[in-house]
Amino acid sequence: MNNRIKELRARFDLTQDELAKKVNVRRETIVFLEKNKYNPSLKLAYDIARVFDMTIEEVFLFNEDHSD
């Protein structure tokens, strides 16, 4: 899963720390999300999407791999 958090933070002029405070997580969590090292809980994904007034699908890009 990829995301557009870094791009959206820049568009909304938010630092990692400011976004972290808005969604009640540590700045390090935002760092890990931006580096695709961490997948957020559904609640965190929803909270981040709400900050940007977007849907979860607009912020988080799911790679659909149907190979088993």
From TrEMBL:
Cite the InterPro entries for this sequence.
Answer: Cro/C1-type_HTH, Lambda_DNA-bd_dom_sf
Which intervals hold domain HTH cro/C1-type? 5-59
Q: Which UniProt keywords apply?
A: DNA-binding
Q: Say if the entry is tagged with keyword Metal-binding.
A: no
Q: Which is a Pfam family this sequence falls into?
A: HTH_3
* The protein's name in its UniProt record: HTH cro/C1-type domain-containing protein
Q: Which residues belong to the signal peptide in this entry? A: none
An example molecular function term from Gene Ontology annotations: DNA binding
User: Source organism lineage?
Assistant: unclassified sequences, metagenomes, ecological metagenomes
